[in-house]
Every structure is written in structure tokens, then in C-alpha cells.
Specification:
Shape: globular
Strand content: 15-25%
Largest sheet: 8 strands, parallel, barrel
Bound molecules: zinc ion
Order of helices and strands: EEHEEEHEHEEEHEHEHEHEEEHEH
Helix content: 25-40%
Number of helices: 9
CATH architecture: Alpha-Beta Barrel
Strand order of the largest sheet: 2-3-6-7-10-11-12-13
Structural class: alpha/beta
Length: about 270
């Protein structure tokens, strides 16, 4: 029986309560939300932190508080972001990984123009430092792919020993500045990753549901949640992150697959227990 991992990305760096009043922002809100998502079938939680004004922050204290609260409630696999704070330095983008040693962390394999308004910078020196820090701390990179060039960067870093194979990829489709969320693009990008890799996908905006369906049909894993979509359907704001997780779990079962538990996800991804 196939197993499909649902990752929930609860918060992200950008959406606010004005976009959707149900988005969790504080450590307590995020931890409660993650717990509800775990009950609904999420095996992995991808986390961003917000400061007291609601802006994206790499504060390792906020990460530590949230991780502690989540760990006291459930065994969900933790995937901490390494980006989403405009004032972050290379060091603050990695400090929480060294301290908290999550199973996974995002590894954005290239730089890009972000949403037509800023730069998403992941220069070569940073990617080398980040890869080494992850390896030393037993954190598996979730290689986030916004366009095909980022896959070729990942192959270079794998060859150089900065990141290890088998790798885990997350195709992030539909972000302005990256690749559009179409099934053709997903099929093409998936064809470029090394044999033996695991992969997951998400669509932002209109492509959200089609990309979820295509990822499940193609044997991949899925990511859902308010980091990527504050609307559950057209003109319908999401009630919660768990609402997205519950839909993904229903579709996975209808597709004759099984929703992976956190420990099954650890096995599939080859991360420590
Ligand atoms: Zn993220």
C-alpha cells in the first residue's frame, strides 16, 4: 500500500489576520493548530515564526517555544523554515537548526525575485554553509524548488557533498517570480530530480487543488495550509489549517493510498526518530 505524507504549512512569512483571521501567528496558536492538523492526518509541520507585530522572524526563541509546545502534544515531524525574515542574517537563518535539531528544514536552492516586490536571496556561500550546518546537526534538507534551475543547483551541491542523497524535494508552484502551478510544469520538474529522491508539491492560488490531485496521482506527497493559500475554495476563506489537511486526507484515501503517520513519514524520508 502506498503511503502519502501530508505536510501542513500553517503560517508562512506573509499572510496576516486581515487576509484570513484564522491564520495562527503566536507560538501557542501555531502549536494548537499543528495539533489539530496532526489529528486530521498531517505527518509533517512546516513552521515559520512571527514577531509580536506579526512580521516574519527567525527568532530562535520563538521557534524554541513553539517546538516545545508542539512536542508536548504530538509526534509530528518538524520542518523549520530557514527564510521569511527580511532582516535575517546567514547566522540567524541557521541558529534555530543548531539549537533545536528538527528532522527537516527548508533548503531553497537558488535566489529569485519574490512576488514582484523583493529579493529572495540564497547565494552560493549561504547554501554551502547551510548544507554543512544541516549535515552536522542531522537535519535533512527539504529542497524547495521554484524553478528548474534550482534542481540543477541541487545536483551540483549533491555532487559536491554539501547535501546528501537520497534527497527530498518540495515543488513550490504558483509563487510570483517562480514557475506557474500547472500539472505540465510539475511533471517536467519531477522528471529532473535524481532517481530514488522523494518529492512533494504544492500550488499557490488557482493551482492549489489541481497540484494536490496531480501529486497524489503521480505518487508524490503533498503540502497544504495557509502559508500557501488563505482561501479554501473560490471566495471561501479557510476555516483552519486542519480543513485543508482533512481534504487532502480524504483525497488520498479515495486514491487508494494511505495517509502516512509521522513515524511512517520519518521512515519514507529517512530522518531520525
Ligand atoms: Zn515556508
Amino acid at each position: 500500500m502506498e503511503k502519502t505524507i501530508i505536510t501542513v504549512a500553517t503560517t508562512g512569512a506573509w499572510p496576516t489576520k486581515e487576509h484570513n483571521p484564522n491564520i495562527p501567528l503566536t507560538p501557542a496558536e501555531i502549536a494548537n493548530d499543528v495539533y489539530e492538523c496532526w489529528k486530521a492526518g498531517a505527518a509533517v509541520a512546516h513552521l515559520h515564526m512571527r514577531d509580536d507585530e506579526g512580521k516574519g522572524t527567525m527568532s530562535k526563541e520563538k521557534f524554541a517555544e513553539t517546538v516545545k509546545l508542539i512536542r508536548s502534544k504530538c509526534n509530528i515531524v518538524l520542518n523549520l523554515t530557514t527564510s521569511g525574515d527580511l532582516n535575517a542574517t546567514d547566522e540567524t537563518r541557521m541558529a534555530h537548526l543548531i539549537e533545536l535539531k528538527p528532522e527537516l528544514a527548508s533548503y531553497d536552492c537558488g535566489s529569485m525575485n519574490w512576488m514582484h516586490n523583493s529579493l529572495f536571496l540564497n547565494p552560493p556561500q549561504f547554501l554551502e554553509k547551510l548544507g554543512k550546518t544541516m549535515m552536522e546537526n542531522g537535519v535533512k534538507p527539504e529542497i524547495e524548488i521554484f524553478d528548474a534551475g534550482m534542481i540543477y543547483n541541487s545536483l551540483y551541491y549533491m555532487k559536491k557533498g554539501v547535501i546528501a542523497a537520497p534527497a527530498h524535494y518540495q515543488f513550490v508552484l504558483g509563487a510570483a517570480g517562480g514557475t506557474a502551478a500547472t500539472i505540465e510544469n510539475l511533471v517536467y520538474l519531477k522528471s529532473l530530480i535524481p532517481q530514488g529522491s522523494t518529492w512533494s508539491a504544492l500550488g499557490i492560488g488557482h493551482g492549489h487543488v489541481p497540484i494536490m490531485l496531480a501529486a497524489i496521482a503521480l505518487g508524490g506527497h503533498v503540502r497544504v495550509g495557509m502559508e500557501d493559500n488563505v482561501y479554501y475554495a473560490k471566495n471561501q476563506l479557510a476555516e483552519s489549517n486542519a480543513q485543508f489537511v482533512a481534504r487532502a486526507a480524504r483525497v488520498i484515501k479515495e486514491a487508494n493510498s494511505t495517509v502516512a503517520t509521522p513515524d511512517e513519514a520519518r521512515e519514507i524520508l529517512g530522518v531520525k526518530k
